[in-house]
Design brief:
Largest sheet: none
Distance between the termini: 63 Å
Radius of gyration: 23 Å
Pfam family, one: Fis1_TPR_N
Organism: Helianthus annuus
Keywords: Membrane, Mitochondrion, Mitochondrion outer membrane, Peroxisome biogenesis, Transmembrane, Transmembrane helix
CATH architecture of one domain: Alpha Horseshoe
Subcellular location: Mitochondrion outer membrane; Peroxisome membrane
Strand content: under 5%
CATH class of one domain: Mainly Alpha
GO molecular function: lipid binding; molecular adaptor activity
Helix content: over 70%
């Protein structure tokens, strides 16, 4: 019973804090990946360059810096059309979904993660991301309803106050 209560309280806390299980990446990792890409550009095979770019994309979309996330999204969108390997396509779509999720575009993120799950229905990372997306959408909807209800209440109070003031003058 205590475990159920604890889980319930954790879910409430996660709802209001917006925490998720998608990992974050710090700027040191991004810099390391950028150096790796620069080295691979000099004297490596195309396959090695592609692997390094995929790692850099991963680091960028998982970054805490919004400008890194946008750069990762741009890299992935630019490389997606030329990707022929189905496994790499799935990975890039997933990373793009993470990037859109981090940037707050939950609709695009959900669309991409759904495409990933069509390819591999039991992919845990994609399932976890989809749950995080849906949690954010629900949270935003509840907050939006709360804001709308508050606005309607405020308008009602102002209108009621004006009506009361006008009725006193007569």
């Amino acid at each position: 019973m205590d475990a159920k209560i604890g889980k319930f309280l954790d879910s409430i806390g996660n709802f209001f804090t917006g925490s998720d299980t998608i990992p974050w990446c710090d700027s040191d990792i991004v810099l390391g990946c950028e150096r790796e890409v620069a080295e691979a550009e000099k004297d490596s095979s195309d396959e090695r360059k592609s692997e390094c770019l995929l790692r850099l994309s991963w680091a960028l979309v998982h970054s805490k810096r919004p400008e890194d996330v946008q750069r990762g999204i741009a890299m992935l969108e630019g490389s997606l059309p030329s990707t022929s390997d189905p496994l790499q396509m799935r990975e890039k779509m997933y990373l793009l979904a993470v990037g859109y999720y981090r940037s707050g575009d939950y609709t695009r993120s959900r669309h991409l993660v759904d495409r990933c799950l069509e390819i591999v229905p039991d992919w845990r990372q994609a399932i976890t991301l989809k749950k995080s997306i849906e949690d954010h959408i629900k949270k935003d909807g509840v907050i939006g309803i709360g804001i709308a209800a508050t606005a309607v209440t405020a308008v009602g109070l102002v209108a009621g106050g004006l009506a009361a003031a006008l009725s006193r003058k007569k």
